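Thread title: Can someone regenerate the structure for this chain?

I was given the following input by a collaborator and told the matching structure tokens would be attached. They weren't. Posting the sequence so someone can regenerate them.
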Amino acid sequence: MGFAAIELVRAVVGALLLLGVPATAVAAQPDWKAIERALGKSGQLQAGDVFRVGMPRTDLSVTVKGVPVKAGFALGSYATFKQVGDHAMVMGDLVLLDAEVPAVMSGLFANGLESPRFTTT
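Best answer:
Regenerated them for you:
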């Protein structure tokens, strides 16, 4: 599977687990460096204590009407993380090939991610 989409799912879920703390504990400050290590990408802290990690699809070669599309322009996956009490929330967009969707969705569900949403364009 191109882009190792299932590896990305494992990394995102693993990064969420790094943010988790027991329900009886007071939420500690998130370790954003651990998230970066889990994803293998650097991120940026944004307003509202949201941590964003960009993951452009540099493995794809896409051309629209003869014009090459640059990965950072329109093929950008990303994940944003926010600690909410004793839970972690992740939101983002993943640029996937049709063949990658089933494995990614299965990976998200199998690794305990709640309420993943899927839309196509």
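Confidence is low (pLDDT under 50) at residues 19-26.
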